[in-house]
Amino acid sequence: xxxxTRPAARLYQITYLxxxxxxxxxxxxxxxxxxxxxxxxxxxxxxxxxxxxxxQEAETGKEAAS
Length: 66
Fold this sequence. Notes:
- The chain has 2 helices and 3 strands; from the N terminus they run E-E-H-E-H.
- By secondary structure, the chain is α+β, with helices and mostly antiparallel strands.
């Protein structure tokens, strides 16, 4: 028996710092190294955090309830 579901990819949130509004992108684990390298080549500062879709939904729900 084979499973048609693929395990969920690990996601990370990359925040590019330094502008009035920081750019935020979500990438898969395999893309994190490329984002760090790109930032280093361009003298940019970034913040890398694990991303959890379920955690983001829970936080949004709390803010909406307030």
